[in-house]
Amino acid sequence: MRRTTPEKSPQSVLIVCSNDKSTDFIRSTLNSSDYIPIETTANAGEAKRRLSEKDFDVVIINTPLKDEFGVDLAIDINEKYYCGTMLLVKNDIYEQIAYKTEDFGIFCVSKPITKEFFLRAVRLVSATRNRIKSIEIKTENLKEKMNEIRLVNRAKLLLIEKLSMTEKDAHRHIEKQAMDLCLKKSEIAKRIIITYES
User: In this model, does residue 136 exceed pLDDT 60?
Assistant: First the structure.
């Protein structure tokens, strides 16, 4: 069976850069329908404020910043938000910074950089972020399913104990209630638990 490629949605980008020329370079390189909107800020403090107000898919930090170098900001972003983080650093300190940030999942790129390589790097950060987001969604769905199973099993045990139902009848009762009331089985299970445990 052939898989169809899903429609790509544009990636929102926050550029954190204290140098206007570098900001223009980054913005012009990303100037396509793949990256919308592109927002910019000149320091770490403003970047933190923006991130607390809005979700971004990719954050590009061009070091050094006015109020800090940028490494602490990158680490803070990766620990608090679900976005891809790229750190641009001068070639002579690249190895040192890359070593310090790689365990945090921060993508470190050395400067100077060509437009082509920069765009490839941003695409890689974006693809990695999308993959992680997909895994997180699957994990959340699995947690929700496991929680539903636990609730339904607890409710079935109560129906068996309090109403002398068989396991099969208890299961059928929960499913029928869910269908009749257009609710999830977990919601019916919660109602049963409240009724017989309170």
Answer: yes
- Which positions ≥6 away from 136 have C-beta within 8 Å? 82
Question: Is the pLDDT at 40 greater than 70, yes or no?
Answer: yes
pLDDT of residue 139: 86
β-strands 58-62, 11-17: how paired?
Answer: parallel
Rounded CA-CA distance 150/33 in Å is 45
What is the distance of C-alpha 50 from the center of its chain?
16
C-beta separation of 158 from 197 below 8 A: yes
Long-range contacts of 135-141 (CB under 8 A, 24+ apart): 136/82
Q: Please answer whether residues 33 and 61 qualify as being in contact, where contact means their C-beta atoms are separated by less than 8 angstroms.
A: no
Contacts of 88 (CB under 8 A, 6+ apart): 22, 60, 61, 62, 63, 109, 110, 111, 113
Average pLDDT over residues 174-189: 92
Handedness of CA 117, 60, 42, 69 (dihedral sign): negative
Beta-carbon neighbour count of residue 163 at 10 Å? 12
What 3-state class would DSSP assign to 107?
Answer: strand
What's the pLDDT at 82? 84
pLDDT tier at 186, thresholds 50, 70, 90: very high
Write down how long the chain is.
Answer: 198
Tokens read off for 134? 């997909």
